[in-house]
Amino acid sequence: MRVFLRNDYEDLSHFAADYLISLLKTKEKGEYLNVALPCGYTVQRMYAILGEKVKAGELSLKQLRVFHIDEFLDLPEKSEHSQIQWMHTNLYSIVDILPSNVHYLNPHRPDSDYLTECSSFESLITSHGGLDLTFFGTGADGHVARNEPGSSLKSSSRITKLAYDTRVQLSERWGMPLPSVPERALTMGISTLFSSENVLVLFTGVSRSRALEMCLEKSVNHMFPVSAFQKHSNCTFAADEPATYECRVKTVNYFKGIEKTSEEVFGDP
């Protein structure tokens, strides 16, 4: 487990973009970086930075193979609130990822056989050699993708029920009556995400400070799913300063010291 602390959301977003780019550069011509990608505010600025670099001719993402980490069920196919639509607006429309390299759990399967959909998605990931990088943010409750508190830490891709609190938050965010907010979602399981060779977890804002505390100062707890990733062999937790407010000063200073030592001895972390 490695921890990197940045001053603010902007610095954190640049760190995350640079992290992905550094892994992409390890791929030879004709090879792909298999990445599990999230939606949401935490990664919105990071995606914009990638778009700026592509537009400037400094970067190409044609060697990126994308797997969405979740999707809502029971929304209209062209809903502006779907994860697919969010990704198109905030990433695919501003970068050069090939459409053929974008894969997602299909919430509009004609036969509604979502068990088969999830099983096929797992097989698809495996057929491409597994995930090279999984990254995501988390909520105040420590959820991972749509693995709500209490989810099995050994779960694979599946249908999940959204917690009541989650639906209330979505209702407020979308300006939608609660009965119209989806009750179900398709999600990569915690075990699926954990199988990735590299994991990057982002924490931004004071509302995520409890989740960061649980990852750095507490033991694994299924009621805080994100805490499971402290046991991953190559996981990086990256946070802005407000997200550290629930951590002890000693903990924050310790990880700042580790990063400083790493820079002095080995160069850039």
Describe the structure.
The chain is α/β, with parallel strands linked by helices and 269 residues long. It has 8 helices and 10 strands. It has a 7-stranded parallel beta sheet with strand order 1-10-9-6-2-3-5, with helices on both faces. α7 (209-217) links the parallel β9 (198-203) and β10. α1 (9-24) packs across α2. The protein is globular, with a radius of gyration of 18 Å.
Can you give keywords for this protein?
globular; 269 residues; alpha/beta; seven-stranded parallel beta sheet; 36% helix; three-stranded antiparallel beta sheet; 10 strands; single chain
Question: Topology of this protein?
Answer:
Blueprint (H helix, E strand, L loop, with lengths): L1 E5 L2 H16 L8 E5 L3 H15 L8 E5 L1 E3 L10 H10 L9 E2 L10 H14 L5 E5 L20 E4 L2 H11 L9 E4 L2 H5 L3 E6 L5 H9 L17 E6 L8 H18 L3
Parallel strand pairs: 1-10, 2-3, 2-6, 3-5, 6-9, 9-10
Antiparallel strand pairs: 4-8, 7-8
Would you kindly provide a brief summary of this structure?
With 269 residues, this protein is an alpha/beta fold. It has helices spanning 9-24, 41-55, 83-92, 114-127, 164-174, 190-194, 209-217, 249-266, and strands spanning 2-6, 33-37, 64-68, 70-72, 102-103, 133-137, 158-161, 184-187, 198-203, 235-240. The chain contains eight helices and ten strands.
Order of helices and strands: EHEHEEHEHEEHEHEHEH
Question: Treating each run of at least 4 consecutive H or I residues as one helix, how many helices?
Answer: 8
- Order of strands across the main sheet: 1-10-9-6-2-3-5
- Structural category is alpha/beta
